[in-house]
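User: New here, please read:
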Amino acid sequence: MFRLCSLIMMTVSTIVTMTTAMMFSSLSFGAPNIPSIYWRTSPLSPPFSSRNDVLSLVPPGFQQQRQQRILVEFDLFVDLLCSDSAAWWTSVFSQLDSYYFSNATSSAPIRFNLYLLPLPYHTASYLGSMTYVGVNRYTNYDQRVLKQIVNSFFTNQTPLYNNIVNAMTQPQIMNLIYSNNIKSLNIIPQQAYLKLMNDPSIDMRTRTLFKLSTATGVFATPSFYVNKVPVQNGEDFSVQDWISYFNQILSSSY
């Protein structure tokens, strides 16, 4: 059983409840309109005046799908420095990827969306998320490259653990991330990478990913949503459990 990395939030004495309902459920790009039952109003919602404000800042995410008609929307929330996220990605997702998305013969109407939730007690996590967002823009939202970046973090996390980076400055951590996770991919020169990491727009988009995750109700990684409904204990599902789960939805949709 994977041990969830939990984001513990302290309750303040007074919470001002936001009165503007925002449909975060439909923020996955290309997702169909979702019934109003999934609308959320939360004191943790980002301080934006409209849904369009959110959409203008959320960077295009890592998506995989085999065809245009989508019946299953599978949303995964991870922290690039979370060992539980890495364990799930390298064991379960890698097999789901081979079964559904990297399989040229698969025609399953499933879309996979990846979202980041950089947990604050993982020192290098926010800069890791900025790396994901910045290189995403630099490569013109190349899905193949994004997958390589995620794989690089999840297969080589140890040099970025707190016991190593806590004594480092931010520039030192940026250089470490580049040498540890990005350089070998040959997708961006180091100076171009460092320039992106100091770009305020990249910082803002990374903040928005965090706010989007928490406003959706996500507080731990990995977390799973299917068609905008949270999947309890999804981290304990085997590959076959997920395939059966998706098949049940697909069989009831035809």
Observations:
- Confidence is low (pLDDT under 50) at residues 7-57.
- The radius of gyration is 18 Å.
